[in-house]
Design brief:
4 strands; four-stranded parallel beta sheet; single chain
C-alpha cells in the first residue's frame, strides 16, 4: 500500500498510477502538481514540496513514493520520514540505492531516508 506524488500532468500522473497498479501495488492516495514542462519541475522549491507532501492523506499507506528524477526531492526524504512516520522513496534515491547495491557498496548513509539504513 503506497501513496504516490508526482509533479506531472494529470495524464502522465495517471500512467504512473496505472503502472503501479499493474504491478499489484495498492494506491491509497495520490497528489500531483500538473506541471507540463520538465524544466519547470526542476524549479520546484523543496520546502514547498515538503509542505505539499506533508499534507497528503497517507494514513493507510505503508510508504510514500515521490516520482520524477528531475524533482528536487532527495534532500527532503529524511525530513519527510521523520515528520510522517512512514518510509519515503524518491526516484533518485531508489536509483542511487540500487546502483550502490549492485556494486556492493551498500553501507549505511545518513540523511537520505531509511532505505539507506543497513543494519
Amino acid at each position: 500500500k503506497i501513496s504516490i506524488f508526482t509533479p506531472y500532468s494529470k495524464e502522465l500522473n495517471n500512467k504512473v498510477l496505472d503502472y503501479f497498479k499493474s504491478n499489484d501495488f495498492v494506491i491509497t492516495s495520490n497528489s500531483y502538481f500538473d506541471i507540463s514542462y520538465d524544466n519547470d519541475i526542476a524549479k520546484v522549491d523543496p520546502d514547498y514540496l515538503f509542505e505539499v507532501i506533508s499534507k497528503m492523506e497517507i494514513k493507510d499507506a505503508e510508504a510514500i513514493f515521490i516520482s520524477c528524477t528531475n524533482l528536487p526531492a532527495l534532500n527532503i526524504v529524511d525530513k519527510l520520514e521523520k515528520k510522517l512516520k512512514k518510509i519515503v522513496l524518491s526516484s533518485n534515491q531508489v536509483l542511487i540505492w540500487d546502483t550502490l547495491r549492485s556494486i556492493k557498496k551498500n553501507k549505511s548513509i545518513n540523511g537520505f531516508g531509511k532505505l539507506f539504513s543497513y543494519n
